[in-house]
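Narrative progress, year one. The postdoctoral researcher (J.K.) led the effort to move from monomer predictions toward full complexes, under supervision of the PI. The following entry was the first complex the group processed end to end, covering 392 residues in total.
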Amino acid sequence: MTDFIFQAPTKIVFGKGTENQVGQLCKEQGATKVLVHFGGQSAKKSGLLDRVCASLEKAGLPYVTLGGVVPNPRLSLVYEGIELCRKEGVDFLLPVGGGSVIDSAKAIGYGLANDFDVWDLYDHKHTATACAPIGAVLTLAAAGSEMSDSSVITKEEGGIKRGYNSDLCRCKFAVMNPELTYTLPPYQTACGATDIMMHVMERYLVNEDTMTLTDSMSEALIRTVMENASILLKEPENYKARAEIMWASSLAHNGLMNCGGPKGDWACHQLEHELGGMFDVAHGAGLAAVWGSWARYVYQEKPQRFAQFANRIFGIACQGDPKETALKGIEAMEEFYRSIGMPVNVRELGCELTEEQIATLAEKCCFGGRTIGQFRVLRQEDIREIYRMAKG
Ligand code: NZQ
Ligand code: ZN
């Protein structure tokens, strides 16, 4: 096993009505002026935004608002947010939304606390030295940004989607009321479940030793999400199922699931980020569309690991050749994706990939001459082949 540092400094306030505590929570963090950051319509329509603002007012905290964050959050709004916060003297960021809104707030936080162009972080030209403090009100269980060290931003020019990781951006608190996710359309619920599972699978399907305890927690988390995602498609207002998935989203991506093992493979995330940058697809759906092709391309490096996955997630018997068990597990996962309405190739995702686009995606994925993946290290030609297999 590998030595590790586990740091999860986010205070979780979980349960019904918790959004009404947000003013007090910001105050505890020393906020004197808050940016309430949000997306399109959902938080306004549900009345959540009004409740959040009322809580800030009750705590005597002045605030400004900035909405308009879109999925695959854009750099231009991040710049706008930085400017607004500087002008207004904002010292605390309060994203109200899903991963895109939280990530946009993280980028604004970096921009406020550093004096270089914030995109230089995502372009890996600079390292952050600080980030303005952030607290989140979560409305979508998916990305895990409420506890993660990561943020992902898309630069409109060139359709470049890039992530930046640093403990500096971890939320000080996250308010998590499962009822706030009742209004999610089934497609977003399914995308969220897929992303949560993938955050664990990226860490689980690795080519080095892991800890038994971490493996067991990962398996339980994946099975829990599968079970409850299926319930939610029939009963979107099932509180318990929403709660199970919401907590899973945070635990899947706060670092707990790679304790004692390598940091993860992450090739599917990199493959998806290029699809997101080029076609603006939903992140979870993009992951489902490439996962099976990635898995079939790499599993022979260590089929036993995929066979273990097949056995413990789907109960597929491990007899004879582990390669056969591995392949059955990959098929079973794709079957699950289909059952919740997720695509299993890029055509089903709604994109017809041309050979030219495949070459561009692979080239962009290898920016700066990098390789991706840990289970099997992938170069540009491998990536091209996986996109071809995933084309559909
Ligand atoms: O804008 P509104 O109207 O709020 O609609 C949003 C959006 O259209 C809607 N939504 C959110 N909460 C809702 C709701 N609709 C109804 N009821 C609610 N309660 O859902 C849509 C998608 O929202 P978004 O925030 O984009 O989804 P998600 O949380 O999946 O975040 C995706 C982004 O996070 C990045 C992804 O790449 C993508 O850009 N990721 C961030 C990570 C991180 N920071 O740790 C890790 C992930 O791997 C991921 O890469
Ligand atoms: Zn993800």
